[in-house]
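Preliminary data (for renewal application), nicotinamide-adenine-dinucleotide complex.
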Amino acid sequence: MEAMKETVDQNLREMRDTFASGRTRSVKWRKTQLQAIIEMVKDNEDKMCDVLFQDLGKHRTEAFRDELGFVMRSAETALKCLDKWVVPKKSNLPLLFYPATGKVISEPYGTVLVLSSWNFPISLSLDPMIGAISAGNTVLLKASELSPNTSAFLAKTIPSYLDTKAIKVIEGGPDVATILLQHQWDKIFFTGSPRIGKIIMAAAANHLTPVTLELGGKCPTIIDHHSVSKDMKSVVKRITGAKWGSCSGQACISVDYVLVEQSFASSLVEMLKPVIKSFFGENPKESGSLARIVTKKHFQRLSRLLSDPRVQASIVYGGSMDEEKLYVEPTILLDPPLDSEIMNEEIFGPILPIITLRDIQESIGFIKSKPKPLAIYAFTKDEKLKTRILSETSSGSVTFNDVMIQYMCDALPFGGVGESGMGRYHGKYSFECFSHEKAVMEGSLAMDLEPRYPPWNNFKLTFIRLAFREAYFKLVLLMLGLKK
Ligand SMILES: NC(=O)c1ccc[n+]([C@@H]2O[C@H](COP(=O)([O-])OP(=O)(O)OC[C@H]3O[C@@H](n4cnc5c(N)ncnc54)[C@H](O)[C@@H]3O)[C@@H](O)[C@H]2O)c1
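Predicted structure:
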């Protein structure tokens, strides 16, 4: 670990020197790096798909949709929009400040630390990097040790494409992260669990470093079957795709559980079964389209969640497991006990609890009784229910009549609130996430207003009162001695 400390010190020194040289502030440098990320993904598509398969058993198509394609689009958007993003924003100052002018300049924070998680190890590593580079920072990435092939690939390949004095990759687990966190950074961007998020924030507090925490939690999905009965085929396909078709449910924005009215629950189960089969075949273990559980430890965690006899009794579909193959069958639970672990911990796996309510309106109270989720999904055409969801609950995002798609839409900010995180990124929000918005005011020495200065008197007090209200006419009268 002494050697690692020395490596981190040396990397940081080099990154700080590079930032101080001003190189990373140039738009040309930023564009070159963004273009290099696109080239890197294009040149290495096969290798990236291979490491994602080795680490997570992801099908090539899923890997391209959720990681490679996503990253290339993100870099292309940044390339296309960067000239616009970097332009200082002119502020229209009130007449009161005349003839001063104002603007807001986006300046890079400096040296940024990115810590990413294993479930989308390419996109969750490169997408924050794209934001940090767009904003003109130097970046150090530490990907997750739980996706070791991808982490090694990134550590080996990034230096062949990007500016090695400004962009660094270090491999390692919590011990390396701990060393990194002992140093002072200008910004920390973390993707991971709320538990580790607290450690990150505590370490950042030592240096008053700003943090973005992209955390997880349990994302509820409301199905208001009354209003979407005609579209139920699409509803069921979307839920199946989200729960099992993206890293086997090991996704922060996956459907964690579904809320439905009691009368509809068994129909929903019957509708889910054939869709699961149509996606993953009669024997999903042999399906090439179902990612596997990342590690034995995570497999055992899911196994423990299912081992509660009360949870076992709630299984209405699936439930089989194979530790050797790190396989958990797509599984549906009907009304597992609300005090069970599976209903209080983020599931992060291919298990879908369906929770029944007497009336779908009760879903609002149910969600409000839990920590603020990263996403709320609601299949409904009932405008009143939509309004209640938006006004009575809090979450990172709300998506009506779809699932997970909000993540792909870089016109919308992505991030959590409360236990699901803080800060946001994607598209121009990524640029903002890694920029300090510096206020710049250009004053004028051409005139001076005496009421700004002591000695104080009633005239000056009246002047200040009127100035705060921007009561210009009265101010003129006061100055002319026509108002007391
Ligand atoms: N909001 C999002 O965009 C998003 C995306 C993916 C995953 N997640 C969340 O991430 C979690 C799963 O990912 P994970 O298992 O990789 O999370 P994690 O919190 O265990 O690890 C995340 C990162 O933190 C590092 N780390 C682990 N222990 C540490 C310690 N003691 N000190 C400092 N750093 C440490 C890891 O090496 C890794 O790089 C889930 O909660 C999921 O919802 C959120």
